[in-house]
Amino acid sequence: MGCMVGLHGTHDAMLPLFPVGLMLATTLTVDKSIADEVGPDPLAPARSGLVQCYDPDPASHTCRLIAAYRRASDGAWTKIATVMPDPVQPLTVDIETPVAVRAGEVCGTFDRDQVMAAKLSFYERQVPADHALPLLAQIADAMAGAFGHEICTRFVAQNGALVARPHMTGLATHFPDQRVIWVRPDGGYRVAPRNG
Predict the structure, then answer these.
(1) pLDDT band at 14, cuts 50/70/90?
(2) Radius of gyration over alpha carbons of the chain, in Å?
(3) Domain count, the chain
(4) Which residue from 8, 43, 63, 76 puts its CA 20 to 30 A from 178's CA?
(5) Does residue 7 belong to any structural domain of this protein?
């Protein structure tokens, strides 16, 4: 699995320097309390404070990714994506990127600086900066091929669920459709490994 780095003061376990596995392309579905129709504003639920849970597991209340959206006074949106670089490790990364809604899609780009400024948490406790930086550098190196390429996601109602269809400009990369639900931030959903 690579080098092991201890997190003094955060947890007695050792934190692995994980292999590449971070995908920021959007995975989405909608909560049954929200209509399946996809309107002209795909971020309308975010205006009410809801967040997106990607690939939700209702039994464990876990998500593969959670995307929250913050709107500035000038109308600009920032996406805060909480992701697990390694699906079996209790390590999450919060990356903030600007996004915009165009032609019914949510679009944005990201770069190395945004990844290096991300917040790293282990067992839901923030990792100190001196331990986080080497891991963030490894994540940034793994994602370098996507830097500067716009990722846009169209949301489509399919079989009673909301499905995200992301695509990246300038690269022949195929992302599978993914389910997403809109949930309340205090609804108990979190990004965490799943048993089994």
Answers:
(1) very low
(2) 17
(3) 1
(4) 76
(5) no
- Residue 113 sits at φ, ψ, to 5 deg, of -60, -40
Its domain, for residue 148, covers 27-186
Mean pLDDT, residues 124-131: 93
Candidates 25, 69, 49, 61; CA nearest to 191 is 61
φ/ψ (deg, to 5) at 30: -115, 140
Contact assessment for residue 164 and residue 26, using Cβ atoms and an 8 Å cutoff: yes
Q: Is the whole model's pTM more than 0.85, yes or no?
A: no
Residue 193 lies in a domain: no
CA angle 68, 69, 74 (to 5 degrees): 165
So what's the pLDDT on residue 196? Answer: 58
Q: What is the token pair recorded at 19?
A: 């292999």
Band (pLDDT 50/70/90 cuts) for residue 113 is very high
